[in-house]
């Protein structure tokens, strides 16, 4: 069940990010944006289950392209996905 929650959070965050839906991101998370259009970072955090435990998603990219997705689960586990353009 916890895995389903994490997948749902990931899908929601990517969908809202790609759609440029800042209102939806702010509804779901505490949002922090840093950088410039050419090199930006979007940090999303929310409290889960217990007040002192948080899960967070950090999305980084350039322009309209997402290049890195980092997930930290409330229990301390995490994963990083790097997205690269396919070479011709």
Sum up the structure in keywords.
88 residues; alpha+beta; five-stranded antiparallel beta sheet; 49% strand
Structure commentary:
Helix 1 (2-19) runs antiparallel to helix 2 (22-28). This protein has 2 helices and 5 strands; from the N terminus they run ααβββββ. It has a 5-stranded antiparallel β-sheet with strand order 1-2-3-4-5, covered by helices on one side. A hairpin with a 2-residue loop joins strand 1 and strand 2 (39-48). The model has no long low-confidence stretch (mean pLDDT 82). By secondary structure, it is of the alpha+beta class.
Produce the secondary structure layout:
Elements: H1 2-19, H2 22-28, E1 30-36, E2 39-48, E3 50-62, E4 65-72, E5 78-82
Antiparallel strand pairs: 1-2, 2-3, 3-4, 4-5
Helix pairs in contact: 1-2
Count the helices. How many? 2
Spatially, the strands of the biggest sheet line up as 1-2-3-4-5
**Coarse morphology:** globular
Order of helical and strand elements: HHEEEEE
Low-confidence stretches: none
Brief account:
This protein has 2 helices and 5 strands, in the order H-H-E-E-E-E-E. By secondary structure, the chain is an alpha+beta fold.
